[in-house]
Amino acid sequence: MNVGKNVLITGATSGIGEALFSLFGKHGHNLYPCGRNEDKLQRLKDTYTTCQPLSFDINDAAQVKLAASQVDSIDILILNAGDCAYIDDVMAFDDTNFARIINTNLTSLGTMLAAFLPKVNKGGQVVFVSSAATLLPFPKAEAYGASKAGVDYLANSLRIDLKKHAIGVSLVHPGFVETPLTDRNTFDMPFMLSAAEAAQRIYKGVMKKQQYIHFPRRLTWLLKVLAFMPPFLRHRLM
Questions:
Q1: What's the pTM?
Q2: Which residues span the domain enclosing 188?
Q3: Is 133 part of any domain?
Q4: Which of 102, 173, 178 has its CA nearest to residue 142?
Q5: Which residues contact 190 (CB under 8 A, 6 or more apart)?
Q6: Of 6, 2, 22, which Cα lies nearest the Cα of 198?
Q7: How confident is the model at residue 233 (pLDDT cuts 50, 70, 90)?
Q8: CB 29 within 8 A of CB 5
Q9: Which pLDDT tens digit goes with each residue over 90-100?
Q10: Residue 98 and residue 96: Cα distance in Å, rounded?
Q11: CA distance 39 to 89
């Protein structure tokens, strides 16, 4: 059984990240939960003895570097933290909001990799939590979709370069998951899963060192099929 690994999880104080923290903890792993909410991190620490919380903002390079100095080695680095916002009026394009989402979901990953990738052991893994939204363009998702598409490319490219270092890369495409982020949505979200269900699927895939983890399959395969439709039909459906 794969137990006792050093697992660092960003965005561990809510949603999928918190559910992953709970699941990895139950399986006996050593945890580095990361987030900005110090009170919540302290409560996580009280839950598991093999837990060292790290409080920092992924957009603050100095804070990230300081947090990394407190970590000796990592077996599984889960880059899960992110945000979602929509461009409601495309003709009044919100460049500030666009930049914020790109920075949080994509640019911050460069900061995280610079600080924590040298800590990842040979035979370890880097896990990128992206989104099934990258499989098909969605209306109003210019910022979120572009950021997550960048995550996909980053993960797939990094996998090639990390092979010689014996470090694997897993890319995760969740569909709709019940989290504080999706609670803001006002549209239908088919095949929605709970955060606990999503964490179970991610955990299973990560422990098997799968390169690509996507769920629920009913949604992801549907999006893949729609992506092959003629553009004019696909746009009318969207």
A1: 0.90
A2: 6-237
A3: yes
A4: 102
A5: 176, 219
A6: 22
A7: confident
A8: yes
A9: 999 999 999 99
A10: 5
A11: 37
